[in-house]
Amino acid sequence: MTLSAIKTNLQEILPLRNLFLQENNFQIRYNAQHERGWSDSYLITHDEEKIGYGSISGKENIGDRDAIFEFYIIPSFRNLAPLAFSKLVHASRVPFIICQSNDLLLLSLLFQFGQNINADTVLLEEDFTSSLYIDSVIFRKRNDKDIVFEHKAEPVGTYVLEFNSEVVATGGFFLHYNMPFADLYMEVREDCRRKGFGSFLIQEIKKQCYLAGRVPAARTGLDNIASRATLIKVGFKVAGFMLSGTIRP
What we know:
By secondary structure, the chain is of the alpha+beta class. Helices cover 26% and strands 37% of the residues.
């Protein structure tokens, strides 16, 4: 038996990656790494048959190639996954693994090969439809005449909440994730927080996301309890966590 991990180009692994996306029917946090040229691809072969792939990117910096963040072996060869993964580690010589906890194959390998494992991000998926209402608040698309407050965490969004003729929150959704998923974001003006504006805005953005033919998803920092509570209030549930670890020597 000959098992190899060989550096290749993105086009070579795309048929296998389509299987990965079909099997893992959830938002892939680092999906855009591939198309943006921020990753290296490795083809896994077994006696010259193409049975899987691995992808490498930077753990902290875009230009680095120091972390395995995606790994897939077709089901009929899944028993060879640990050996194939060790071949990928040897070929790429990376020190880190980045993993979504809902990616069960890579998760099992993270715990088999990794140490010093930590979580930093909560991943959320759609669970139910909320019906919040705030009197005198207008949800609409942002226009060029809007005076928008300074944003400190998120970009100025496509949609706004208007209250007392002022923009008190903005938000939108990113489309660079695997189909059909989109990632929701928002920011509320500092003096208007804890008044329900954030939850109402996300509720309305979810509707627009579905109208655009996308399934809403979201993420937030592990320590951002307020953001997580806002998302859960409007129908999201925790789907997993972003984990990272160092590869055992």
